[in-house]
Amino acid sequence: MAKPHKLKARLPHGLADRGPAEIAATRTMVETIRTTFERFGFEPVETPAIEYTDALGKFLPDLDRPNEGVFSFKDDDEQWLSLRYDLTAPLARYVAQNYQFLALPYRSYRFGWVFRNEKPGPGRFRQFMQFDADTVGAATMAADAEMCMLASDTIEALGIPRGDYVVKVSNRKVLDGILEAIELGGDANAGRRLTVLRAIDKLDRLGLDGVRDLLGPGRKDESGDVTKGAGLDEKACDTVLGFLRVETHNVPQMLDQMEALVSGSNAGLDGVNELRSIGELVSAAGYDDGRIRIDPSVVRGLEYYTGPVYEVELTFEIKDEKGRPMRFGSVGGGGRYDGLVSRFRGEPVPATGFSIGVSRLQAALTALGKISSKPDAGPVVVTVFDRDRVADYQRMVSQLRGAGIRAELYLGNPKNFGNQLKYADKRGSPCAVIQGGDEKMRGEVQIKDLILGAEIAGLSKERDDYLKKQAEAQFAVAEDKLVDAVRQVLARHGLS
Fold first, then answer.
1. pTM of the model
2. Binding residue per annotation — 116?
3. Does residue 59 register a pLDDT over 70?
4. Is residue 304 a known part of a binding site?
């Protein structure tokens, strides 16, 4: 007879499974971010992971890929739906749909998974988590300055000290002025403008030479893949790269240089003035000590940005698995997107926002030792010594749970008692509860401290503290003292 077909277990390319330690770390991070965002006056809102494709818009960088960077499908009404690629486009739809009910300016935050149909790579997944804050209905640069301050406070609340990060600020209008200077203005040049923006956005990864290649004919990466360039001539490339070489240590001098570069562009001059305003606001709030700085290299890859753009960069170095120095680079960013809500309403609606890449930032915090890579302690395991008394053991579990203690009943084959303790060890249980027939007759239970037991396993049996710890590692208590005894063990290990 033919063998039945066995389905192969496989994970889709560009996705990742997550275990208890990583999930616990994410939960801790998200709570810290939420607390910081709420301190700035933002309130929560949730939008679904699926939106109508036209509502999301076509703003993603990877235009050469199927579905233009999004995962899409048709519903029963033959309308195209897509998984959200960020949290900003769904917010724009939500605000437009509920505009008359919202207190404007509308300040909200949200977090969740987003999905991108793009080429995966090291640390680059097709599903990742973001945490966003947005202010809709405020045209003042104070809203943008506040986003930069929020980014700074959040990074520090997560344990990254000053000097190990920087919030960089630039303005799309300034770059628009540069592009006008090289005759890339107007709708006819929209595609090439976007290619230039995305080339500049790769400056921190590719350097000036790599950006020049992308501004010109194109670039071949280490894998042999070729990225088509913007096709600029040498003079135009020099103009763009000259903008990126602007002095960044002296802010007034830098802004004067920018102003000279865009002197023939009204949009460009507006952008310089907006940067001056943000700089003044940041200085007045005391954030001009290196935490927030103006940097022309920031452009952001999404097309919908219309003014100030900002990016959080981690500046410290760590060693990779081969001992080579590496940086995590950007872990968040955002900017002003005054046209996104307007698409739905047909009237100007100013908006600005900031997004944290939770998944990438979590990897950085783990590398810094700010987040434990170990899972939380497992549940207390109540073992089954006598299979005819499962109801008794289940009653013990209920008592522990009722007292707010994480606990479970061993549900495997109770025949081999040693396997039950091995199971508890694998679960990371702090202790196990044991009651055989003799203990039952005496009205007692045995508490086995598994953490202490692991510690004394490596001690010499001749040491004085061995016998003392051995007595503490397993002891008997009256049945009605079960909860108190377990709490004692948990407190001993800082788990109460």
1. 0.84
2. yes
3. no
4. yes
